[in-house]
Specification:
By secondary structure, the protein is an alpha+beta fold. The longest helix is centred in the last third of the chain and has 21 residues, at 600-620. The relative contact order is 0.10. The model is unreliable at 1-29, 413-488, 652-665 and 790-854 (pLDDT under 50). Bound molecules: 2-acetamido-2-deoxy-beta-D-glucopyranose (NAG) (9 copies). The site of one 2-acetamido-2-deoxy-beta-D-glucopyranose has 7 residues, from strand 20. Pfam families: Malectin_like (PF12819), PK_Tyr_Ser-Thr (PF07714). It comes from Escallonia rubra.
Length: 854
């Protein structure tokens, strides 16, 4: 082998490395149902109780003494149930003078008040043109309201009840009548309205929101179907947004299964159910030539009021973290600049919402909500919105309808804009209520949106790992926590020693840069070359990873893992010394660096070595370890092209079965990341298997896992290569150097292994042991063919090369596919490969050792 030896970096943490931490995925089960303490459901004018299809029982209001006091006559009107959308609309109570329902409240706080109006046909009254006012104590709900041409109306209010008793009063305009079909007065959870939101125009933080009363004007599930009240534990109906989308500009629906959606710590499905977050509107073509347009919703509103606009977001469109940045505008003004949901929530498919107070006296109707890509060249040119709620806030005379208060006072700002309550009234037939509800009242005092604002870099990677948590204060204690409690950390270096070794941290000696700091090449003692990784003490994230790596490496010794030689913690430094891998990362030998090409056999041996390293991580250590950042820059080659896995900074012990819901950090690199890991955010060793599958393709095709410069369908290697593989034409896209040299059977076996690794679901992927077996088999096939052609310039391979053994019958091959590999070096006892000599740490690894004992 005639290899130009190039000194290259030991550990590359390129700019593509993702380091974003999930905020406790699937932590303690979020209570997604709610039992209201006050739960009045009245079917007005009915002679008996009425059960809705969703099993809710509306009692008759006939026992007037309990609920109703009036100063006139009330009349029941009714029609056969076949004629109405819901059985509660069969009857109505009609008042020709003032009438009051009184309710006793078991618990103060937020309550839904829902009023159902359906103008029941009858001979005596023309309910369609009844005109009346409805007040709730001192709050005006409806002022001289008439249903007019609408078929029916459901009005929904959210009020903070502070008194033990409140009354709902119906007052017909002189000469007219008032009517009501059904009334709901139901407790709502405290968390529903936080006390503060971002005020727009002027931009400020506005508090005191819990003192206002609200009327739901719009509640839309963007890009998805109507969510009826029975699918929302709070009995809310979420309409479809299609009719509010501004036509002409391309927007499209996107949706995922609701069970993919998760809520960050402190979040709650009571804010909005998963089905709201599971669908969204996104830009039609996220990659059009002129991607700069906004997706716009136009909402008619009465501009004399102030509104609470609540926007729901959930990144169900990105393939990787921090890929989506967009702006949000309300009323044409910037509401959120560069919203990055990955950073806000720490993950994909995680629920997020934000409240805005919109004083519409500053904008003219219609109210617009817009999302559009940031004017930058980074990330995906896309923007999304999952849900949209617009709640009207009472005005200064405590009215939600018009400028007159209960006491006849007029609002100071009498300009009235377009009044349109269409949005909510259109959800015909969808109002079927607060279905089965269980689970206790649960107070959630903290506002989870605030908790999401901190930098994801600072999240404790090892929450629950006491040795890390207790090591925050001083290096002294850190030392005692890490170093003395672990073994095999090797030699202690003085700072001066390393300073000399790196020629006083010569910038020219830097061979790698990462979030943790720099990696230098150095020379110790008799001239042994080492890689010196010097942590940047300013970087909390770096120190976390640093500490992880020490702990990992101290436990792990394997011929296919980069070895730690020693460390230094003098002067607040965190320095690790590794064996130097003179041939650098595998990637450099595949493309981009003009190094001599590797032969197919070399590539197979390197893949086998890396697979052994991973297999050892998964199964060999006391507990399984997941590498989490398997990629071709983390596979390093020594003098003899022996592959070793590097960079355990991201490694984390595999969760045991009891702990699968423990919060995990979503980490990895673009192009290599297991899609299932993204969806579920549950880490398993099969995520490494997926990434390794990408590595195999990279080795075969000699191109990057992700190349944004290529045409769209070719950007992602895994997707592109699998398309060709399915067509049986994978050989069309392999590294041209290999064409003709590679044995077709060997390549077939290799490609099969890659394909299995890339299976959509982790359970369908092989273990690293299985992968290893397949790669060894591919190597044997290659060797047999080269030997047959007498082309092999290397050693003669004894048993393995004999045609009889390398061409097993298909049946035998398929059964052995599942056989886990265990060769002596996979031994669970690290001591076997642990021999670290203080003075020549690298020396013992420097010999070429043939693979698999040959
Ligand atoms: C009222 O409903 C109950 C149970 O649904 C039924 O047994 C009863 O006969 C009904 N009464 C009238 C007057 O319809
Ligand atoms: C009215 O109240 C009485 C006793 O309080 C009860 O037995 C009856 O079922 C109630 N009637 C209706 C229609 O709810
Ligand atoms: C309701 O209003 C009262 C008084 O303004 C306030 O103390 C209370 O916190 C509010 N309740 C909720 C659930 O916000
Ligand atoms: C989006 O979904 C909604 C509700 O399912 C549907 O009404 C609408 O037609 C869909 N729009 C497109 C462009 O597919
Ligand atoms: C609503 O719930 C019903 C069953 O309760 C289910 O069949 C239906 O798919 C749900 N719809 C949505 C939009 O989640
Ligand atoms: C998106 O809308 C905002 C506010 O209306 C506007 O300032 C911006 O120019 C729009 N962007 C594009 C690309 O039209
Ligand atoms: C809305 O703006 C007007 C004019 O600036 C102001 O008088 C009013 O108090 C504002 N309303 C709210 C709720 O902030
Ligand atoms: C809504 O009513 C409350 C009290 O009833 C009052 O304090 C508040 O100022 C009103 N809201 C606005 C925007 O004026
Ligand atoms: C987006 O389009 C540009 C120009 O057409 C292209 O270079 C780029 O690869 C595309 N990106 C994706 C992710 O498809």
């Amino acid at each position: 082998m005639d290899i130009v030896v190039v000194l290259f970096c030991l550990i590359l943490t390129g700019p593509t490395t993702l380091l974003v931490t999930a905020v406790s995925t699937g932590a303690p089960a979020k209570s997604d149902s709610f039992t209201p303490q006050d739960n009045y459901l009245l079917d007005c004018g009915a002679t008996n109780q009425t059960t809705l299809p969703d099993k809710r029982v509306f009692l008759s209001d006939q026992n007037s003494t309990k609920f109703l006091s009036y100063s006139g006559r009330d009349i029941q009107v009714s029609v056969p149930s076949a004629d109405v959308p819901l059985p509660i609309y069969r009857s109505a109570k009609v008042f020709v003078s003032d009438a009051t329902y009184s309710f006793h409240m078991a618990r103060p706080g937020w309550h839904w008040v829902r009023l159902h109006f359906y103008p029941v046909n009858n001979n005596e009254f023309n309910l369609q043109h009844s005109k009346f006012t409805v007040t709730l104590d001192t709050l005006v709900l409806l002022h001289e309201f008439s249903i007019n041409d609408a078929k029916w109306f459901v009005k929904e209010y959210l009020v903070n009840v502070t008194t033990e008793r409140f009354s709902l009063k119906f007052s017909p305009v002189k000469g007219s009548s008032a009517f009501i079909n059904a009334i709901e007065v139901v407790s709502a959870p405290d968390i529903l309205i936080a006390d503060s939101g971002s005020a727009l125009f002027p931009v400020a933080q506005q508090s005191g929101l819990s003192k206002y009363s609200y009327e739901t004007v719009y509640r839309l599930n963007c890009g998805g179907p109507v969510i009826s009240s029975q699918n929302d534990t709070l009995g809310r109906t979420w309409g479809s947004d299609g009719s509010f989308l501004k036509p002409g500009l391309a927007a499209k629906n996107v949706s995922v299964a609701p069970n993919i959606v998760s809520y960050p710590d402190g979040g709650s499905p009571l804010i909005a159910p998963p089905s709201v977050y599971a669908s969204a509107i996104e830009m039609e073509n996220a990659n059009v030539t002129t991607p700069n347009f906004n997706v716009t919703w136009n909402l008619d509103i009465d501009s004399s009021f102030t509104y609470l606009v609540r926007l729901h977001f959930c990144d169900i469109v990105s393939k990787s973290l921090n890929d989506l940045y967009f702006n949000v505008y309300i009323g044409g003004k910037m509401a959120i600049s560069g919203l990055d949901l990955s950073t806000e929530t720490g993950g994909l498919a995680m629920a997020y919402y934000k409240d805005f107070i919109v004083n519409t006296s500053m904008v003219s109707p219609p109210l617009t909500v817009q999302v559009g890509p940031m004017n930058e060249n980074t990330g995906m040119k896309n923007a999304i919105l999952n849900g949209l709620e617009v709640l009207k806030i009472n005005n200064s005379v405590n009215s939600l309808d018009g400028e007159f208060g209960v006491d006849g006072k007029t609002a100071s700002n009498p300009t009235r804009g377009t009044v349109a309550a269409v949005g909510f009234a259109m959800m015909f037939g969808a109002f079927v209520g607060l279905g089965a509800m269980a689970v206790k009242w649960r107070k959630r005092p903290q506002d989870w949106r605030k908790r999401n604002s901190f930098s994801s870099w600072l999240l404790p990677l090892h929450a629950g790992d006491s040795s890390f948590m207790s090591s925050k204060t001083s290096l002294g204690s850190r030392k005692s926590n890490f170093y003395s409690s672990t073994t095999g950390l090797g030699r202690y270096f003085s700072f001066a020693e390393l300073q000399e070794a790196t020629k006083n941290w010569d910038p020219n000696a830097v061979i790698g840069v990462g979030g943790f700091g720099n990696v230098y090449i150095g020379e110790i003692d008799d001239g042994t070359q080492v890689a010196v990784k010097r942590g940047n003490p300013q970087s909390e994230q770096g120190i976390n990873e640093f500490q992880t790596e020490i702990q990992m490496l101290s436990k792990l010794r394997h011929r296919h893992l980069v070895s730690l030689i020693g460390y230094c913690d003098e002067n607040s430094e965190m320095i690790l010394v590794y064996e130097f891998m003179s041939n650098g990362p595998l990637r450099d030998h595949l493309y981009g660096k003009n190094l001599p090409s590797l032969s197919w056999k070399q590539r197979l041996e390197i893949c086998i070595g890396a697979a052994r390293g991973l297999h050892y991580l998964h199964t060999g250590a006391a507990q399984g370890i997941i590498h989490r950042d398997v990629k071709t820059t983390n596979i390093l080659l020594d003098d003899n092209f022996i592959a070793k896995m590097a960079d355990f900074g991201l490694s984390k012990d595999a969760p045991t079965t009891e702990q699968t819901h423990v919060s995990t950090a979503v980490k990895g690199s673009f192009g290599y990341l297991d899609p299932e890991y993204f969806r579920k955010q549950q880490l398993t060793d099969k995520s490494d298997v997926y990434s390794f599958g990408v590595v195999l393709l990279e080795v075969l095709c000699a191109r990057p896992a992700l190349n944004p410069a290529l045409p769209r369908e070719q950007v992602n290697l895994a997707e592109w290569a699998m398309q060709w593989k399915r067509k049986g034409l994978l050989d069309k896209i392999i590294d041209p150097i290999l064409a003709g040299v590679i044995n077709p059977e060997s390549m077939k076996k290799f490609a099969e292994a890659a394909e299995k690794c890339l299976a959509e679901y982790g359970v369908d992927r092989p273990t690293m042991g299985d992968v290893l077996w397949n790669l060894e088999y591919a190597l044997q096939l290659q060797e047999a063919s080269s030997q047959g052609k007498a082309e092999d310039e290397n050693k003669v391979f004894a048993a393995a090369a004999s045609p009889a053994t390398v061409t097993p019958a298909p049946a035998a091959a398929s059964t052995s596919d599942n056989r886990p590999i265990s060769s002596p070096e996979e031994s669970k006892n690290p001591a076997e490969v642990q021999v670290i000599d203080e003075h020549s740490g690298t020396a013992m690894f420097a010999q070429f050792a043939a693979l698999n004992g040959r």
